[in-house]
Write a structure and sequence with these properties.
The protein has one domain. The protein contains 2 helices and no strands. With 71 residues, the protein is mainly α. The model has no long low-confidence stretch (mean pLDDT 80).
């Protein structure tokens, strides 16, 4: 007489499906994430466009980028 055990692949499939369903339900009930406003990257007034091209200026965004590239 042989002992017949259910296929482990079927058991794994249903366990995985239950895990995915639980994760989807948890994500659906989470509140939305709102990004916080940063004082460093505050909106600066718009500058007029230069007539001869160019237009580079050292803004808060550029300063923040330079800080992130320092080692």
């Amino acid at each position: 007489m042989q002992n017949r055990q259910p296929h482990s692949s079927r058991r794994s499939f249903f366990a995985g499906a239950a895990t995915v369903g639980a994760a989807a339900a948890a994500v659906a009930t989470l509140p939305p994430v709102v990004p916080a406003a940063s004082d460093d990257l505050a909106a600066e007034p718009a500058r007029p466009v230069p007539e001869n091209g160019g237009g580079y200026h050292l803004s808060a965004h550029v300063k923040h980028y330079y800080k992130t590239t320092q080692i």
